[in-house]
Amino acid sequence: MLPPPTAPGPMRTLAPVMAVITAAYISLGLSIPVIPLYVHDDLGFGPLAVGVVTGTQFAAALLSRVWAGAYCDRHGGKTGIVTGLVLTAISGALSLASVAAAGTPMLAVALLMGGRFLQGTAGSFIITGGMNWGLVLLEGPHAGKVIAWIGMAMFASLAIGAPFGTALYASGTFLATAVASIMLPIIALAMVAVVRGVPAVPRSAV
Hints:
- 81% of the residues lie in helices and 0% in strands.
- By secondary structure, it is an all-alpha fold.
- It has helices at residues 10-30, 35-42, 47-75, 77-100, 105-137, 143-193.
């Protein structure tokens, strides 16, 4: 008689979610080091504009984090990540539009700021969705591991995305970075589609 199959370990269970977070945050990290270069060198704005455009992303992340958490509680972590990835792709499209409008710097920087705002919001949905998804998959004694591993995936992705984005900028200006920031979330969406989701926690259980 064959022994009953053993349940997968916590790392194996969480690995698909970590892979999705990695792909998503590489996309988010691409533009972080090159936005100042694009705003200053290509569009011709000064340090204040560089700071405002860069800060827009982080202000959006701050403003949207609680909303993203409530959304993931209602709809589940996988849905939260999908929402964040769609917003990331739209953000990339706005960056691409900014490149097309570079001849009109004020319009270009306005489009870029819109993209930064969406990207900050997207990051809230992606990281909150990943934490939610992981905590539902590995509840109880593994909660600390979920927070640690999802956080590791996020920071590793940012560390990979930053030099990748800089290399793209060096090879083809900001256009290459904008195109990559559209394609990577689309790839991540394809990855999400094949990963098992979990239902949202019922309100009565919270």
